[in-house]
Amino acid sequence: MTNEEFYKLSKPEQRVLIAQDAINQVIANQFTPMQNVYARFEFSDISKVKQSTSLQPFVKDEQIPCEVCGVGGLIISMIRLANHVKFNYQAQHGDWYYKNISQNSCMLQPDSVPIYKYFTKRQLAMIETAFELEPRDCNDELEYELEYGLDDDIIDKCKEFGRNYENLSDRFIAIMENIVKNKGMFKP
Asked: What is the 3-state secondary structure of the chain?
């Protein structure tokens, strides 16, 4: 599918394709589900990466293996399908992404890429809670409720969903299959 064909789809159809691509990448051993990391991958040859280079060829054509959490898998699959992210040497944490040249690696953060064009912050928080088995990036669950509109009941449902799958790959795939089944929405 070309970027242009992807853009013509409705938002729910785009979310379904992003989730399905994430499933396919785990099955193909291109994504390794891992907790406490959003998306991390290594370039085989950092010299190929130039300022403002699209990341899509590196994660799609060259098929660089990535370590991802639930949200990170959606981010990389979004890049694979929609090509929204360019390499930026000057980027800082919270900007486009953080890059570690000494290790030829790149780490993407959810606030640093346009994943919110497809998934709401609330949906991403639910997905992250189901994958990590705890709310992330907040000091406590009350802050999580205020920031993302998730009350204790929804947080508990997300955690319970994730606890049904001890293996991280199984958990990741179950979350993505839930998104596909529910036409682009995660419903624990």
From this structure: CCHHHHHCCCHHHHHHHHHHHHHHHHHCCCEEECCCCCEEEECCCHHHCCCCCECHHHHHHCCCCEEECHHHHHHHHHHHHHCCCECCCCCCCCCCCEEEHHHCEEEECHHHCHHHHCCCHHHHHHHHHHHHCCCCCCCCHHHHHHHHCCCHHHHHHHHHHHHCCCCHHHHHHHHHHHHHHCCCCCCC
Q: How much is the pLDDT for 175?
A: 98
Average pLDDT over residues 83-97: 51
Amino acid 74 reads: L
pLDDT at 122 over 80: yes
**Number of residues in the chain:** 188
Query: Six-digit token pair at 99?
Result: 């890059």
Q: Of 134, 66, 63, which Cα lies nearest the Cα of 97? A: 66
CA distance 72 to 78: 10
Where in the chain are the domains?
3-116, 119-178
Query: What Cα–Cα distance (Å) separates residue 32 from each residue in 71, 74, 121, 159, 167?
Result: 13, 13, 23, 20, 11
Rounded average pLDDT over 3-11:
93
> pLDDT digit string (tens) for 22-65?
999 999 999 999 998 888 776 666 556 655 567 777 777 666 78
Q: How far apart are CA 21 and CA 67, in angstroms?
A: 15
